[in-house]
Structure formats: structure tokens, C-alpha cells
Amino acid sequence: MKSFFWENLRIALTELWSHKTRSILTGTGIVIGIIAVSLMSTLINGVDGLFEDSMKFLGRGNLYVEKWPWFGDDDWWTLRNRPQIELDMADEIKERSEYALAVAADRMRTANLSYKELSAENIYIHGVTTNYPEVSTVDVEFGRFFTESEDRTGSQVVLLGSEVAKTLFPQGNPVDKMIFAGSKRFRVIGVLAEMGSFMGAFSNDTQVIIPLATFNKIFHGPWGRRSIIVKVPEHLIEDAKEELRGVLRVLRGLKPGEEDNFAINQQNAFRQSYQGIKLAIGGTGMIITALSLLVGGIGIANIMFVSVKERTREIGVRKALGATRSQIQGQFLIEAMLITASGGLVGLIISTLISMAISKFIFPASMSFGVAFMAIALSAGVGLFAGLAPARKGAKLDPIDALRYE
Amino acid sequence: MSLIQVKDLYKIYQMGNSEVRALDGVSLSIEQNEYVSIMGPSGSGKSTLMNLLGCLDTPTSGEFFMDGIDVATMDDDALAHIRNKKIGFVFQTFNLLPKSTSLRNVELPLIYNGEIKAADRREMAIGALTRVNLADRVSHKPNELSGGQRQRVAVARALVNNPAIILADEPTGNLDSKTGEEIMALFDELHKQGNTIILVTHEEHIAAHASRVVRLLDGKIAVDEPTQRGEK
Ligand SMILES: Nc1ncnc2c1ncn2[C@@H]1O[C@H](COP(=O)(O)OP(=O)(O)OP(=O)(O)O)[C@@H](O)[C@H]1O
Ligand SMILES: [Mg+2]
After folding, report:
1. How distant is the Cα of B232 from the closest Cα of chain A, in angstroms?
2. Which of A100, B62, B176, B201 is the most buried (most CB within 10 A)?
3. What is the pLDDT of residue A198?
4. CA A406, CA A79: separation in Å to the nearest integer?
5. Is the Cβ pair A321, B109 closer than 8 Å?
6. Chain B residues near residue A313 by CB distance under 8 angstroms
7. What's A236's DSSP letter?
8. Does some domain include residue B64?
């Protein structure tokens, strides 16, 4: 049987070669389908990696007490009218919660920074408690974090994100230099290690950190985001969230039946909404793939019917010389699969090139072996499926009818 | 036991209300190494009979034994095997694959034989082409050959698998008389080497190469007699 395979492959190659244009046109649908499916899987893999990286900054075991929920469709006015989060609740929470490992507070707004003639605009300035490093992934690369007493006294000291440091101090050590935030002078006491960006969009390295008390002293008014960050054991996060909710309701003096007037956010919320986006991307990709493979498959079936018809006499001759049904069927099946598998291979090469370009210019994305294998198997499968009916038709021809066919 | 034994063979085509009796009860036996020509007016059923004997077609009814094996009831694939191993068919219109070289055309029966290695195939095909004097046309395609050369390729293809029977339906019908004689010389040669040969022709001088002539008329055997050569 093996020798027929090679024989049939040879026939198919000769046949496709003698109808080059037709073969290329026929395979195009498959090429597009395979590009769609392999790029889609590659993109999803890449975005997944990016997402996981970004999620690290939020900490799996962190609960964020804030005015606004990160996701959800609650009524905007109700949310807006909620009271601000009182950051001094942090100590109470630490006291009352069984689960809390650390509780830090974080206020944030934007400001323009400058050092001599250099400036950095719209920089996120965080006012945080001294224990902030315990609940976040910030790392001091040069210098030091601020101390308890610096926080208490509202010292004007600042730690720079790595990007900010690069902008304001292209060369030289920023530590102990004096910079301006708005009209206030701050002494730089440290530089944070590089952290990367969130989902490729917001850089975590363009922030600066000052003591919370200093923030409160300088920036009056209600604006800016406020969060209390509660670090709890990762595997107990759901229980901890329930407990925290109870603690907050007591602190806020809410009566039973009254709605929560605060939000407890967690990484999970991102995860869920990301899953939704991923499903949407994946679903669209699958639909495009399925459609182009279907259309491509129909085109191939059509061409194969034409090919069987054109080669009726050839089939007659082969049968007269002793070809069996399965040999004739194999000949046309291999021809169909050869078209689709080459289409798949071309599609794979193109999408590998595209994903190389994506990972060079946009974000890390690489074609996995599994995706490549699936693409080739899928395209060969389409060929098998599309070629079956025409191949059977050819195989069933009566030798004498086929020989007489004009 | 006869090589070919046919009894009450009918081939009836139903054309609307009327029926065409292409073969109307033919009984015939042909021995090993016989040289038979089949003659008769146009439409008398010669090709129909040849196609049945060549296992290309199946009869409406009747018995057909080849080498004692019942062929009439065989299925498609079993018939394909018989065609491949026992029969070499030469057509009036050559029926070569137009895109393939002489060598490839002659190799075809060996490929479908399934038991012959690629290297042996090539050698056997070149051997067959040499026997028909075409060793120097191995890589020509049919459209690069003359009519006589094409028919010689077809003869090489018919004999390459060493079949017991060679069937030829008007093998010289499309050739001039000189080229026709060349082809007939090949058949005579094959006959001498022990092959059984059955050929259809309209021309008496072609039929005279055989030792027996079967004349058909309206799907029936009218005459079945030895030729001059057969009587010798
Ligand atoms: N497929 C078919 N359908 C209907 N009738 C057919 C078919 N094939 C052959 N016939 C009829 O069967 C009869 C015998 O045909 P056949 O081809 O055997 O004649 P023949 O003796 O070979 O003639 P020729 O010398 O012209 O080749 C003819 O009357 C023909 O019309
Ligand atoms: Mg005829």
C-alpha cells in the first residue's frame, strides 16, 4: 500500500504543478483560514502572558477598598455620591480583621515634576503609608524608602519611578537632589526598580511615591483616587473579603439592609473581565477561521469535481490497467490534501512572520509548536473532507464508461 | 480447461422502450496460446465482446470463466486485479496518458500490480519498450510520438506485466497499412512467445495473421472457423 501513497503523491504533485494558477487560487481560502486561526491563538497566548505579568503588580492576595468598583454596571450617580474612603480606616481595619497581614493606604493624583530645566508632566504621584512596600511589588533600587517619622512629620521626600528618574536625571544620581512637584520642593531619597507596564499601556515606571502625610498636607481637596490596600493570604481571599466587608460596614455605621457605600476590588475582577475579552477575541477568530476554511473547503471540493470530470478518461485508463477503487480514491484525496496542506503551510509561514513582527514591535507573541501542528492537521483535514465526495465519484466510475467519455 | 470459456453471454442495453442486444447469446471457448481474430460489420458487438473478455464491462447475463475462475460475478476490485495481472488491452485510440512519458505509461500496470519495486519497474518498462523497438523514445510524451509509435507504446504497456491474454480492439484501425503491419508483426511475435491473442479487425489481411476467426452478426456468432494459417 505504501508504494501507492508515493505514486499518488507523485501524480498529485504533477497534476498540481501543471495547473499552478488554479492550485494557488484554490489554496488561498485555506491560507487565509490558517492565518486567522494561528495568529489568533498566538495573539491570545501573547496577551495571556502580558496579562499575567501585569497582574503581578496587583498582587493575588490584595483587596483594594475604594469608592469605585473596577468593573460592574452599578448606577453611576449612586457610586458618585458615595463618601470618600477615609484612609485613616486603615489602622482600624488592621486591628479588627483576622485575615489582614498588612494594611496600607494610597492616595494618588497627577502633578508636573521638574529638575532644573528638565520636566516630566502628568506624573502619578502616590501618597502612601510607610508599610506600602509590604503590599506592593515596588522595589527600591537606589537610596531608601521613607521612614515612619518622615511620614509622621510630613517630610518632603520622594522616591522616583525608573522612567521619571531617567527623564529628570539623564545622567547622574538623583539621590539627594531637590526636585519640584508643582511649586513644592522635594528631596529625592530613592529610585524604584523598573516594573514594566500594565497590559502594555500604562507604565508603572512613571510614578513617584511620597509619604501619605506629606501628600495630605500639600494636596488639599477631594480629588484623586484613594485606596486602602489590605494584604491577606491568597488562598483565603474570598473569606477575607467577606470579613473585610463586615468590618467596613461597622466602621461606616451601615444599618442592616443598607447598601454598601464602598467597593472591595481585587485582581479577580480584572481576570474575569479579561476572560470575557479573550473569549470574544477567540470567538471572533474561530468564526473567521471556520468561515474561511468552509469557503476554502467548498472551493476545493468544487475544483476536485472539475478535476475528476476532466480526467475521466485518465481514470478509465488507470482502471483498465488495474487500478482499484481505493487507489483512484487515494489519488484524488491526496491531491486535495496536498492543496490544503500546502495552503496551511503557506498560511503558517505568513503568520509566523507576522507574529515575529508583532513580538518585535508590539508585545511578546510566539507561535507555539502546538498551534503549528494544529494548523497543519486542520488544513489537511479540510482537504480530506472536501476531497472525499469527488474522490469517491471518480473511484466509482465504470471503466468502460470512463474510457468512452468524450 | 480452456483459458476463456463463455456461455450464453448477453449484453442488453435498455434504451427507453426498445432494447439493444449488443450481445445476443454468445458461447465461445479460447485455448491457451490461440490467436483469434474477431470480425463483423459495424455495430455487430465486437467491441462489446472484447470489453467483456477484458473484464472492463460486465454482462447482463451469462457465464464467463477465465482459467476456471468465475469472472461474471466478480466485484469491481477483483476485476481490477484480473485486468492488471491477466490481461493486456490495446485500444484503437491508444489511450495513453497524455502528460506522461512512454516510460511512465508503460510502468502504470506495474505500479498497480503493487508487488514490484520501483527500480524493477523501470527496468521492466524499459525492457518492454525495447521489445517494441522504442528504447530511444523512453522519455517522449505521446504528443511527441507518431501514431505507430504511440500504438507500440500501448503494446509495450499491454505486455509489460506478462499477461496471459492480449486483447486488441482494432489496434491498426488508426494506422496506415505499413505501420499496421509493424504492429501486427509485434503481435505475431508475442504469439510465438506463447501469449494468447484476441484482436478485432475490419480488414481481412489483418485477420489473416490469426489462426482462427470469429465472425459476429447482430450480437451472435455467425461463423467460427480456422483461417488459412490455422489450417496449415
Ligand atoms: N453504452 C451503450 N448504450 C447503448 N447501446 C450501446 C452501448 N454500447 C454499444 N451499444 C450498442 O451495441 C451495439 C454493438 O456495439 P459495439 O461497439 O460492440 O459494435 P462494434 O461491433 O464494435 O462496431 P464497430 O465496428 O463500429 O466498432 C451497437 O448497436 C451499439 O449501438
Ligand atoms: Mg468496435
Report:
1. 35
2. B201
3. 66
4. 80
5. yes
6. 95
7. G
8. no
ipTM tops 0.85? yes
Per the structure, the complete domain to which residue B90 belongs is given by 33-53+75-231
User: Which of B48, B58, B174 best tests ligand 1's pocket when mutated (most atoms within 8 Å of CB)?
Assistant: B48
The tens digit of pLDDT for each residue in A333-367 reads 999 999 999 999 999 999 889 888 888 887 777 77
Q: How far lies B77's CA from each of A196, A323, B9, B73, B214, in Å? A: 69, 8, 22, 12, 30
Concatenated DSSP letters of B27-38: EEEE-TT-EEEE
Provide the 8-state DSSP code for B45. S
Q: Min CA distance, B228 vs chain A (Å)?
A: 33
Q: Which three three-digit cell numbers place residue A366?
A: 510566539
Average pLDDT over residues A161-186: 90
Number of domains in chain B: 1
Task: Flag whether B175 is in a domain.
Answer: yes
pLDDT at A72 over 90: no
**Strand-pair partners of A186:** A179
Cβ atoms A226, A219 nearer than 8 A: no
Task: Please report, for the domain that includes residue B182, its CATH number.
Answer: 3.40.50.300
Residue B16 buriedness (CB in 10 A; 0-12 / 13-18 / 19+) = exposed
* Within-domain flag for B70: no
The whole-number mean pLDDT for each consecutive block of 10 residues of chain B, a chain of 232 residues, reads: 93 92 95 95 95 93 92 89 94 92 95 87 94 92 93 94 92 89 91 94 93 95 90 72
Residue ranges per domain, chain A? 2-54+272-404, 108-223
Does B58 reside within a domain?
no
Give tens-digit pLDDT for A240-299.
999 999 999 999 999 988 888 899 998 877 787 788 888 888 888 888 888 888 888 999
Instruction: Transcribe A291-333 into DSSP letters.
Output: HHHHHHHHHHHHHHHHHHHHTHHHHHHHHHTT--HHHHHHHHH
* pTM for this entry: 0.74
